[in-house]
TrEMBL record:
<dbReference type="InterPro" id="IPR000454">
    <property type="entry name" value="ATP_synth_F0_csu"/>
</dbReference>
<dbReference type="GO" id="GO:0046933">
    <property type="term" value="F:proton-transporting ATP synthase activity, rotational mechanism"/>
</dbReference>
<keyword id="KW-0138">CF(0)</keyword>
<dbReference type="InterPro" id="IPR005953">
    <property type="entry name" value="ATP_synth_csu_bac/chlpt"/>
</dbReference>
<dbReference type="GO" id="GO:0005886">
    <property type="term" value="C:plasma membrane"/>
</dbReference>
<comment type="function">
    <text>Key component of the F(0) channel; it plays a direct role in translocation across the membrane. A homomeric c-ring of between 10-14 subunits forms the central stalk rotor element with the F(1) delta and epsilon subunits.</text>
</comment>
<dbReference type="InterPro" id="IPR035921">
    <property type="entry name" value="F/V-ATP_Csub_sf"/>
</dbReference>
<dbReference type="GO" id="GO:0008289">
    <property type="term" value="F:lipid binding"/>
</dbReference>
<dbReference type="GO" id="GO:0033177">
    <property type="term" value="C:proton-transporting two-sector ATPase complex, proton-transporting domain"/>
</dbReference>
<keyword id="KW-1133">Transmembrane helix</keyword>
<keyword id="KW-0812">Transmembrane</keyword>
<keyword id="KW-0472">Membrane</keyword>
<dbReference type="InterPro" id="IPR020537">
    <property type="entry name" value="ATP_synth_F0_csu_DDCD_BS"/>
</dbReference>
<keyword id="KW-0446">Lipid-binding</keyword>
<dbReference type="Pfam" id="PF00137">
    <property type="entry name" value="ATP-synt_C"/>
</dbReference>
<comment type="function">
    <text>F(1)F(0) ATP synthase produces ATP from ADP in the presence of a proton or sodium gradient. F-type ATPases consist of two structural domains, F(1) containing the extramembraneous catalytic core and F(0) containing the membrane proton channel, linked together by a central stalk and a peripheral stalk. During catalysis, ATP synthesis in the catalytic domain of F(1) is coupled via a rotary mechanism of the central stalk subunits to proton translocation.</text>
</comment>
<keyword id="KW-0375">Hydrogen ion transport</keyword>
């Protein structure tokens, strides 16, 4: 039983690491597609940039939820 108690402390750290993967991948996709769209249609750069910042804000909210969740589950 003592080994399981020690593992629980480190599992929350591993859980946050896994929770950070999703937003990291999401940011890469959003920024990459924005660059691709700007390269294809440079006249749409300002609109794409604005949409990109909205998408980044929503994705970062997921990361903040991942940080806060272990504190609420205790």
């Amino acid at each position: 039983m003592d080994i399981l108690a020690e593992m629980n402390g480190s599992l929350s750290t591993v859980g946050y690491g896994l929770a950070a993967i999703g937003p990291g991948v999401g940011l890469g996709i959003v920024i990459g597609k924005t660059i691709e769209g700007t390269a294809r249609q440079p006249e749409m750069a300002n609109q794409l940039r604005g949409l990109m910042f909205i998408g980044i804000a929503l994705i970062e909210a997921l990361a903040l939820i991942g940080i806060a969740t272990p504190f609420f589950l205790k």
